[in-house]
Amino acid sequence: MGKYISFNLNQYIKVKIKPNGYEKMVNTTELLSLQTNGLIPIRDIAYFKCKEDTEGYFQFQFHQFLEEFGHDVTSLPELIDLNILIENKNDN
Q1: How many CB atoms lie within 10 A of CB 46?
Q2: Is it the case that residue 72 has pLDDT exceeding 80?
Q3: Is residue 59 part of a domain?
């Protein structure tokens, strides 16, 4: 593959989420809860923040990240730190 690396959309990335990004995630759960008549619970910022690792990163499968933030590409700098970590499949 030369200068390219193989990356599967199911691989994990780690992202530092900014306060506006956490608010967006909460808003998403509110909308999903409304659309499912409460089957999907509303989550607050504390729910998401407690999932950060010790360095402040939140882990997503890449396709989950795209689902949550992909349509807000122009707003990404307000929602996340643009430097992300990508899981190295060779370390498994």
Answers
A1: 9
A2: no
A3: yes
CA-to-CA dists, residue 86 to 6, 10, 27, 58, 83, angstroms: 11, 11, 26, 12, 10
Name the residue range of residue 75's domain: 18-87
Residue 34 sits at the vertex; the CA angle it makes with 28 and 36, to the nearest 5 degrees, is 100
* Structural domains of the chain, count: 1
In a domain, 3, yes or no: no
In a domain, 7, yes or no: no
Q: Dihedral through CA 67, CA 4, CA 90, CA 52, nearest 10?
A: -30
33 token code pair: 């809860």
pTM, two decimal places: 0.81
pLDDT per position as a tens digit, 14-51: 999 999 999 999 999 999 999 999 999 999 999 999 99
